[in-house]
User: What shape does this take?
Amino acid sequence: MGLLVERYGIQFPRRQNANKTVDSICPCCFVTIATAAQEADLELAEREHTCRIERIAQLYPLCATSPCCQIDPRFGRLAKPPNES
Assistant: This one.
């Protein structure tokens, strides 16, 4: 299960497309995690989504500005500047 929904109740923004499908977007990594004909069909993808650590590192090099870094323990190592060991 994804940490964002199950443990922390993070809400995924949704947008309606021109073709009437609906996208679910992760508020941490900004990836469109699913597209469906009905919003109810997005819930499983939202529950199962886990951000890729590479994507978080790219978006938040020091991890200080991301709420995800405080949520997901995998991201803790990103909190140090890259030149520190």
